[in-house]
Inverse folding.
């Protein structure tokens, strides 16, 4: 299995909703990442988990809450988002040694209304 | 401060010709560079990489060149095919730090 699976593919949520994005990989990768990408912008790093521990938080607002329940799963819990949070949310995984690059999921297209 | 710059937002190339995508970086600590390709509604997929100890890496139709003194790398695709039409992201990092991506270049290969 050489894939990173993200669900859902599309999500529309109101500003008072609570929702979660899910990411799963079975490649034995011990580093997992959340990126946010807006149109015509590069993917921007949000969080990094290394060996199931949060190692990097790029000053992301607390309305985004990551969780890594085990080495295969990565969640992003969303609460009280703003319309400007609408974006493509990409999950990626890698070996801790990055020389093989990341494997990305297809992303979740999030729209906050 | 943008550490990885792709100054051409788009590029159009005739099928069969060479596509050259450029990337500049400012962080002299970067020692590893990768190119990713992204189709609409899909995540980026890894294409080719190069370590700073090399100046060229080739994989089939794809070749990446690195000029460390100029802090510049380029991706050559030859011959270009319509299926190569996508957005190409350059990324770099140092050690095991997370990748930093450029804004991407949209390549259109015209049949």
């Amino acid at each position: 299995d050489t894939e990173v699976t993200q669900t859902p593919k599309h999500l529309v949520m109101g500003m008072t909703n609570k929702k979660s994005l899910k990411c799963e990989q079975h490649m034995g990768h011990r580093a997992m990442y959340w990126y946010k990408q807006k149109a015509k912008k590069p993917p921007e790093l949000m969080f990094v988990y290394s060996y199931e521990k949060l190692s990097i938080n790029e000053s992301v607002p607390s309305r985004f809450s990551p969780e890594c329940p085990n080495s295969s799963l990565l969640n992003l819990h969303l609460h009280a988002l703003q319309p400007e949070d609408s974006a493509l949310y990409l999950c990626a995984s890698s070996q801790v040694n990055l020389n093989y690059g990341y494997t990305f999921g297809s992303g979740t297209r999030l729209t906050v209304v | 401060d943008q550490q990885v710059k792709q100054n051409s937002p788009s590029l159009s190339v005739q099928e069969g010709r060479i596509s050259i995508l450029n990337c500049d970086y400012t962080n002299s600590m970067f020692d590893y560079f990768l190119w990713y390709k992204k189709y609409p509604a899909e995540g980026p997929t890894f294409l080719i990489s190069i370590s700073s100890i090399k100046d060229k890496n080739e994989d089939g139709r794809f070749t990446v060149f690195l000029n460390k003194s100029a802090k510049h790398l380029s991706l050559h695709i030859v011959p270009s095919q319509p299926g190569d039409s996508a957005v190409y992201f350059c990324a770099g990092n140092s050690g095991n730090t997370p990748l930093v991506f450029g804004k991407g270049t949209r390549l259109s290969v015209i049949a």
